[in-house]
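tool=predict chain=A
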Amino acid sequence: MISTTDFRKGLKIKVDGEPYYIIDFQHARTAQRRAFVRTKLKNIKTGAVLEKTFAAGETFEKPDFEDKNMQYLYSSKDEYFFMDTKTFEQTTLPQEKLGDYKWYLKENKEYKILFFEGNPISIDIPSSVVLKIVSTEPGIRGDTATNVTKNATLETGLVVKVPLFIKEGELIKIDTRTGEYIERA
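tool=predict ok
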């Protein structure tokens, strides 16, 4: 069991049967009342943010979470297939659960998948990935006075803005939080 005294940012708890993690919390006390804890929680399944107040000392169930390293195999329509490298069991994640992370998945790479009560609910992507450019326009000479960019299509289908000196076939590093070009790899 988890108590309100154990709260910290990033702690995963189960509230009303749903998995949440704590974004922010504050212990408070008024002169005439018992102490309480104001929290800001994010639903791990839906991403919805909830502000809730709990009495001090209230306890919560520890959620049944499990992290597994799984290898990305392939995608078919709106489903993405992963394989547990130890047991060779396959799991699918729908596109809704991946969101924009689908643009950063490379076949045969391992990713950490979070399971809640035996069901996959989210994927952990590194903060940056290296991807190959499959098509881009050639840079035009003389356009180097300012930060001019051009579109580049990556091996996963993602289109990003890159500097003019970047060519087709090059590897570049992309920030997965913003979807922006960082540097050549």
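The mean pLDDT is 86. The chain is about 0% helix and 55% strand.
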